[in-house]
Every structure is written in C-alpha cells, then in structure tokens.
Amino acid sequence: MDLSPILNPLNDAQREAVTAPLGPVLVLAGAGSGKTRVLTHRIAWVIQAEGASPHGILAVTFTNKAAGEMRARVEQLLGIPGSALWIGTFHGIAHRLLRMHWREAGLVQGFQILDSEDQQRLIKKILRAAELDETRWVPRDVKWFINSNKDEGRRPQHLKDGNDPTRRQLIRLYAAYEETCARSGVVDFAELLLRAFELWRDNPGLLAHYRQRFRHVLVDEFQDTNAIQYAWMRLLAPTLAADAAPGAGSHPFVVGDDDQSIYRFRGARVANLQQFVRDYPQAKLFRLEQNYRSTGTILEAANGLIGHNAGRLGKKLWTQGARGEPIHLYTAFNERDEAEFVTHRIRERVAQGGLRREIAILYRSNAQSRVFEEAFLSARVPYRVYGGLRFFERAEIKDALAYLRLIANRNDDASFERVVNLPTRGLGAKSLDVLRAQAKGAGTSLWDAAGVLIGGGDALGGRAATALHGFMGLIERLAGDGATVALHEQVDQVLKGSGLIEHYKRDKAERGEARVENLDELVSAARGFTPEASDLAPLAAFLAHAALESGEGQADEWEDCVQMMTLHTAKGLEFPVVFMCGLEEGLFPHQRSSADLDGLEEERRLCYVGMTRAMRSLYLTHAEQRRLHGVDSYGQASRFVREIPQELIEEVRPRVQVSRPAVVGRFRPAEPAVAGVRLGARVRHGKFGDGVILNVEGNGAQARVQVSFERQGTKWLMVQYANLKPL
Ligand code: ATP
Ligand code: MG
After folding, report:
1. pLDDT at 650 over 70
2. What is the pLDDT, as a whole number, of residue 596?
3. Given the CA of residue 38, which atom of ligand 1 is nearest to it?
C-alpha cells in the first residue's frame, strides 16, 4: 500500500500527528501551520492505513465551503467519492441526523429551518400575542436569551427564575416560543444542535448505533465549539478504557488555535481546549510551529498584535518564507475614498496579470460591503460577497421560499402568514385576526384553522372565505404538480403559479426588475443544486440548503472575482492579497466589544485571524470619516494598527483623491451640486471660518463637501446643513 501521497506533503511534526495511534488527539497550533491539512490527511490515513471505512468518518468543519474543500481533497488523496464520508458543519450534520430520525427527535417529518430573521419575526408575534411591549421586551434580547440557553443545553423547565420577575417573563416567553415552534414544525439554528444532542442522549439504542458506526470524529476549529457541540461530541466519544471493545465509542481528533477563538458571542468556549485534555487524560497533544502561509513580515506583524492579549496558551510560529513586502497602511478621507483606493490597487494588480480571486476584502461589519460593491460595480470589477449579501435572505426570495416551505409543510405558520395575502388576494388584517384566533383557540396551525373556517360558519366574510379557499387550492395544486417534475421546474411553476413574478413585474421601479431577476436566479440555484445527502427529498434538501447556507452559493463561482467577506467568515481561508478595511476605533475594535477586556481581546483575535489570512500582501485601511448605517462618525485609527510593530508598516502616500463628484446609485447622472459649492471654491462657515472646497460628493440632500479651513483643518460637511457662503 503506497502511503506516500498521504505522508510526503507533511513535515515531521504534522506526520506524527497524522499517524498518531488511535485514541484521542489534540493538535494545538497557530494560524497557517497546517492544522486543516493535518486533519484532512488524518482522514485519509485512518482509511488507508488503519483500514477504517469511509462510512465510519465524521468530520466537522466550520463552513460549508471548508467541507467542500475537504471532501475534494480526500477524494483526490484516496480516489474514493467524498460523498461516502460525513463531512459538514455542526449544523449541517445535526440537520442530517434530525431528518433521518425526525420521529425519535420528536419532530414532524417536513420540519423547516428558521433562520435568524424568521426567528426574530416569530418572537415578535409571540410578544404581540402576549400583549408585551416590544420596547421593554426587545425581540433581539429575547432571541439572545433563548439561543444562549439552548447553546448551553437548557430547556425552559431547567431554568429557575430566582424570584426575578424579568427572568420569569423571559422563561415564559422561551416556553411559548418552543410551543409555537413545535406546533408549526420549525426549528431554529440553536435548536438543531440541541435536538441532535438530545436525540442521542435520550435514545441509547440509536447512540450505540452511531458509536459503532462513527469510529472517528474529527473537528476543525475546535476553539470555537460551544457547550452543546462539545457535549454532543462527548456522547459519541466517551472516554474509553485502553482495552475498550470496538464500537464502544469513537476516537476524537480535534485541531484548534486558542488565538483564533472568535465566536464567544455565540457561546463558543475556548476553554473546551483545556476541557478536552481533562476529559481525555490519555489524549496525545501535538504542536505545529512552522507557518506555511504568510511572509515573515506578515507573520511578525500578526504575532506582534496578538502578543497584546493576556492568558494565551502561547505558541511559537516561524516561517521559512521570504520577508516579503511591508504591511501597507492607507489613511482614507472617507469610506468612498477607501473603496476607491482598494479598487485602484486591484486594477493595478489585475493589469499586471494578477488574478482577482486571489484578492480578499475583509471587514468587521457586513454593512461595510455596500460601498465597495458600488465602487466595484462602477469600475466593472467582478466581485462576490460571501455570507453577507445573503441571496436567500432577500425579501422576494423569502417570499418564494415561503411558498415552497408551505408546500413541504402546511403547518409552517410563519410561511403561511408571509404569503397568504401575497400577491394581494383580498384577505385583510381582520380576516387574518379571525384565522389566528381560530388557530389559537383550537391549538392548531393556521392552515388547519383555515380549513375549518372555510368549511362552515360565517366567521369570515364571503369574499375572504373565497380568497382563502383559492389560496389553499393553489398550494395543493402546486404541491401536486411539483411532485412529478425536477426541482428547478417545480420552483419555476411555483414562481409563476403563485403570481409572485407578475406581482413584482408590476412594480415598475428598478427594484421590481432586480427582484424578478433574483427570482429567476432562484430557478438557476435550484437547477445547479445537488443535495449533499441522497436521503432527503430534493425540495426538503433545497430548503434546508437555503436556510443553512444563505449567501454561500450566490453568484458565479467560476468567474474570476474579488472575494468579499466579514472577518468572521474568513476564518480558515487564505488569500495571496488581503485588504483589511475600516480599521477604526469604534468599528474595529467594535464599540460594543471594546468596553470590557474580554470583548477587546476577542476583537484582537479577530484582527489576528484577518491578518493571518494573507499570504503575500496585506493592506490595512482606515478612514477619517465614515458614514455607516446613515450616521457619520470621525474615527481614529484602530489601536490594532498601533499594536503592530511600526517598522513593519509602510504608509501609502499620496492619497488617492476622490476627484469626481461621486454618483449615488449606479446609473443615475449627477445632478448639479448646490450653487456655488464646487471644487476649489472658497466658502465661509459660521463656526469654522473660511476655507476651500477639496471634494464634493453625492447629490441634492445627500451632497457633502470636504473643506480645508484655514484655522480648523479639514472637515466633511453636509451641504444641506452647513450653510456655506460662497466668497
Ligand atoms: P488556520 O489556523 O488559518 O486554519 P491551518 O493551521 O489550518 O490554518 P492550513 O490551512 O492547513 O493551516 O495550511 C496553511 C497553508 O500551508 C495551506 O496553503 C497549506 O496547504 C500549506 N501547508 C501546510 N502544511 C504544509 C507543508 N508541510 N508543506 C507545504 N505546505 C503546507
Ligand atoms: Mg485551518
């Protein structure tokens, strides 16, 4: 048996980890040291050298993208189809288990997944039904209460109110929420994990089966597992005596880096690394110290930054690679200038033969992507947003998905409410109230309540009853027609049959057109969709995909395009060229997190993750003024910039000027700016005195100018409010 393809591409330390005797293994190592490579090769090793069955492998990755890459790699190493292995995210794997064992898990067969936005909407509904004030019971906070308890494995009945009325109410809301979810046959993300855990915990026969089957459980990015994920893994891999019989449990192989733990806010516990060593005292610990990803300069800069954190497990990282370029730092006037600069650099690189897909734009907050998107669109730079733009979260897509979900599960109340009167079919708010009251009174879903109401009595007006009848008939018809055709044809039928396409076509604005395009795109998405596991009906698999992977499969993956994503999404990935943008106090570190030390350290780890994505070139940018969510702020450069050894940084000068009045929107011609306010004009301001206009941006009410004042320095002002007098 030739093991060289598995072992040759590894250094000594990596090879030792890959070939470690069966038993618990922890690989603790810094960024870019080959942890993911080791985990992948370990899979190939146990199959090839230990004779493990591909069906006996359960590998957990952090994103679906990473799962796909791992599957492809194993395929290449072993020449077996990657689909034979269970490789996926915790959520994806939990979902798959629950689909197969819905009955034992206490779910309905066609259960649907609630994404975070659906979940919030449902919570709002519950608050309304309980007549609670949303300003006192903020839906987002209620959601956090529910999810964080689920992440810790706690159901409402486990919670004590400690005589605190607020807590008592929250627990009541959690219970009401659970009841509604059960009735509607929906589960949220946290529920997937908790349910999958309870499924095994409460069904010993099933657990025994899976312990027998999955002899190897491998977890990447272990530092970001939360309590329930860890507990779930522990069920599968109980601590074994050295002479335990085969089938008594599986061998855990986990890899992680405490410096890259960035999901504390979602309940991740970096302490799971230490817990692992306590729970598996016989665990073999491996450290990898050579970084293969980045230049010496990038690595040194990242190490310098993370050195400001306390309480690290501590690791050495070195590279044989070249010193490489310095870290480039650019100070922009504002967010547009920042985007222009990045665009400019990208074009330069592409002109020199560089590939766009080698370039990543990383940012702290999703909303930052929009300005880059605008700049890229007008400069015709193809780009792709990962995770952020969320194709599947756009309103029109959610409308279409609601139809599909209702077809898959009539009791899905959230979907029912979303589309029962979309397009308008004459069901007013009053009729809906009657429906809700009927459903609540009888403890049924809205669909069943509708069936009762149109079946007799005159609680609904004649017109509403007819409309409702029509709607139910439509859903049944679409379900029947769709049962015999391919998935994408079914989606197409639903779009047309539901009247959604017509509905959006009537919307003459540009938005309507874009929405129709998006709906068309949904048909393409369905056509290109291949279910990960064949044990699901295509529609169910597609809906799960839409909920689980929003954003990940959105655009032309094959096209050479710039990669845009949040720093969180970038974990585990690498790119030759990285732009980290918006390095300003308040934005990064984020205002919310910088108040307490733990929060600040987590932000710093996030910055470390971002920097260590870069292979050859790393650009850091920040803006003196930024408009985000419609609010202007004047941020100082992030402290993280100062924490990097300054000799590694080279400031980019001169600044690229925003020389033209930027156009708001893609195709709209620029309107003339306010009279007298033009580049180079001298103006007087009531407070700041006299100055010269350096820059003009935006139009009409949005117009802004940058003025260099003689005594007060340079400022950006809204023309509308600044009351500038031409001199
Ligand atoms: P992260 O902490 O960011 O997830 P990681 O520790 O998982 O990083 P990998 O992604 O596995 O690191 O590896 C980083 C890069 O180094 C990859 O491009 C990988 O192919 C390469 N690499 C890893 N080990 C070796 C090796 N022994 N020889 C050559 N290249 C290697
Ligand atoms: Mg990795």
Report:
1. yes
2. 84
3. 11
Domain containing 229 equals: 4-102+194-290
Q: Whose CA is nearest to atom 8 of ligand 1?
A: 32
The torsion angles phi and psi of 725, rounded to 5 degrees, stand at: -105, 125
Mean of pLDDT values over 466-489: 93
Q: Which of 28, 293, 303, 615 to mutate for ligand 1's pocket (most ligand atoms within 8 Å of CB)? A: 293
On whether both 274 and 408 belong to a single domain, the answer is no
Q: What is the DSSP letter of 132?
A: -
In terms of average pLDDT, the best of 245-254, 371-380, 568-577, 632-641 is 568-577
Query: What average pLDDT does the segment 76-85 reach?
Result: 87
User: Which protein residue's CA is at the shortest distance from atom 4 of ligand 1?
Assistant: 572
pTM above 0.85, yes or no: no
Closest residue by CA, ligand 1 atom 23:
34
How many angstroms does the Cα of residue 311 sit away from the middle of ligand 1?
Answer: 25
Residue 269 domain-assigned (yes or no): yes
Residue 31 alpha carbon, nearest atom of ligand 1: 2
User: Which CATH number belongs to the domain containing residue 144 in this structure?
Assistant: 1.10.10.160
Index of the ligand 1 atom closest to the CA of residue 30: 2
Q: Torsions phi, psi of 495, nearest 5?
A: -60, -45
293 or 394, which is more confident: 293
Residue 419: what pLDDT? 94
Q: Which of 118, 220, 258, 492 is catalytic?
A: 220
Q: Say how many C-beta atoms besides its own lie within 10 A of residue 709's C-beta.
A: 18
**Between the CA atoms of 377, 383, 384 and 385, what dihedral angle is there, to the nearest 10 degrees?**
-60
Structural domains counted in the chain: 5
- In this predicted model, which residue has the larger pLDDT, 699 or 445? 445
Instruction: Report the alpha-carbon distance of residue 634 to residue 624 in Å, rounded.
Output: 6
Q: Would 298 be classed as within a structural domain?
A: no
Residue 662 lies in a domain: no
d(CA 55, ligand 1 centre) in Å: 26
- Cβ of residue 102 lying under 6 Å from some atom of ligand 1: no
Of the pLDDT bands very low, low, confident and very high (cuts 50, 70, 90), residue 169 is very high
The enclosing domain of 689 has a CATH number of: 2.40.10
Q: State how far the Cα of 560 lies from the Cα of 558, in Å rounded to an integer.
A: 6
Rounded-to-integer distance, Cα 208 and Cα 371, Å:
53
399 and 385: one domain? Answer: no
Q: In this structure, is residue 660 part of a structural domain? A: no
